[in-house]
Amino acid sequence: MPQSGQTFTVSKLTFHIRKLLEENDTLQDVWVQGEISNLSRPASGHIYFTLKDANASLKCVMWKTSAMRLNLPLRDGMAIEAHGKIGVYEPAGQYQLYADQIRPVGEGALYQEFMRLKAMLEAEGLFDPDRKKNIPELPHKIGIITSATGAALRDMLNTLRRRLPLVEVILAPSPVQGTDAPPALVKAIHKLDEQGLDILIIARGGGSIEDLWAFNDERVVRAVADTMTPIICGVGHETDFTLCDFVADLRAPTPTAAAELATQITIIDLQAEIQTYKTRLASATINLIAEQKASLASLSAQLRYLSPTRLIQSEHQRVDELSRRAFMSVAYRVNLQKKYLEGTQKRLEALSPLAVLARGYAVVTRKSDGGVIFRVAQASDEMKVRVSDGEFEVKRNE
Amino acid sequence: MAKSKTTQKNVEDLSYEEALAELEQVVSALESEQSQLEDAIKLFERGQALAARCGVLLEAAELKVKQVVGEDIVAFEEESE
């Protein structure tokens, strides 16, 4: 221990002060409450800030390893409680808090309870992803559990009205804060879960952690976890997490976002769908008519090919052919006959008595009856003599 | 399929979902079947009527809000803004 009146170097004194602080158990495990100012987060990943209240300020540093585990977005002016140990930064002669945890102010007890319940429910498997039910894309009926008078309800109804006015909403009004809230919320959840709705939304506008506390109540959290109907939780603002968020099938950052997530397909999509159907309807019909036209054209081509006109033409040709052959055959036979006739004529001529006459013979006939005289006894008084070039009459001399 | 719809409802009596479901059927029938031209035109007209019905219903849709009061579900009067 240094003596009174002793002279120190600065380093020695600073080291002495540091030892005093670091040997004090209270200062090595302390929660300090104050408001953040001069917040700085350089690229190193460490966080530097000053905690202050009305009368004093305390330099704080949080090393990167602790900063990475921080699940609370820090900002200047924020009231927090920081946990850590007091030490001295010797080059600046400055004592400071080396923080390893930060929690919102006033939440110590609530926060502990939150963490305890969260760990328990998580261990029971209530947060498991495979417990999550799918949210229908196009719901017909949506149940809403919230306060009948809050802005949250108005925001949700306006969102639904804008996005999907075909929907039917069934509201189960319930207080959303205070000691009455948890049993009322549970009753409302059960009531709506029995209605066979497509989606439930449990929601509440923003507020302090105490205001939102009903949504961390074990009864409410279990009721949300156990719904048969897919349920979306939209409590508070983006940065607020309640246990209902973890057990719901879908977490929405705000009530409005919950209404949006409940209506993945909007009236715009439906109108576009109808338009698509209209287009398909028209083009299918046009195609069909075009096909019909094409098959009509092909049929009439076939018809032309099979037309009797062609048959008739070919029959004509056949008739022509036959008649030609018929003609040919007749002409041939006529010719044959002609030749035969000529031959016969020649033979006839050869046999003709006229040919004999030409050789100097004569035929004598009776003038009276024209009978040919073969014997003398047949002769008459007047007779005709035919020679090769004509005839003359003769009279019998006694 | 056009013929099986002997109990074809008047388009005006169809809900949005019914009209949409039938529209879907009509369009796929037109696209896939070798329909008779006359049937096809009937299908087309039916489809147009169904599409129009859907459009009208979308246009006219108004959010219905009810609330649970005790064991009953009654109309909910929204506070005017």
Q: Brief description of this entry?
A:
Chain A is of the alpha/beta class and 398 residues long.
For the residues shown, what is the average pLDDT of chain B? 81
- Low-confidence stretches of chain A are none
Going by CATH, the architecture of the largest domain in chain A would be 3-Layer(aba) Sandwich
Element-level helix/strand string of chain B? HHEE
Task: Report mean pLDDT of chain A, rounded to a whole number.
Answer: 89
How many individual helices of chain B? 2
Are there runs of chain B of 5+ residues with pLDDT below 50, and where?
A: 1-6
CATH class of the largest domain in chain A: Alpha Beta
Strands of the largest sheet of chain A, in order across it?
1-2-3-5-4
Structural class of chain B: alpha+beta
Helix content of chain B: 40-55%
Q: Examine the coordinates and then state which fold CATH places here, giving the name of the CATH topology of the largest domain in chain A.
A: Rossmann fold
Largest sheet of chain A: 5 strands, mixed, barrel
What is the name of the CATH superfamily of the largest domain in chain A? Answer: Response regulator
| Number of individual domains of chain A | 4
Amino- and carboxy-terminal Cα gap of chain A: 225 Å
Structure write-up:
The complex is a heterodimer of chains A (398) and B (81). Chain A has 398 residues and is an alpha/beta fold. Chain A has helices at residues 10-22, 25-28, 64-68, 108-123, 151-163, 181-193, 218-225, 243-247, 255-262, 267-306, 308-351, 353-358; strands at residues 30-40, 47-52, 57-62, 79-89, 94-104, 141-146, 168-173, 199-204, 231-235, 250-251, 363-366, 382-387, 390-395. Chain A has four domains: 10-106, OB fold (Dihydrolipoamide Acetyltransferase, E2P) (Beta Barrel); 117-127 and 139-264, Response regulator (Rossmann fold, 3-Layer(aba) Sandwich); 268-306; 353-395, no CATH class. In chain A, the strands form three sheets. Chain A has a five-stranded mixed β-barrel. Chain A is rod-shaped. Chain B is elongated, with a radius of gyration of 18 Å. Helix content of chain B is 51%, strand content 12%. Chain B contains two helices and two strands; from the N terminus they run ααββ. In chain B, helix 1 (16-32) runs antiparallel to helix 2. Chain B has a two-stranded antiparallel ribbon. Chain B has one domain. Classes of the chains: A alpha/beta (398), B alpha+beta (81). At the A-B interface, helix 5, strand 7, helix 6 and helix 10 of A face helix 1, helix 2 and strand 1 of B.
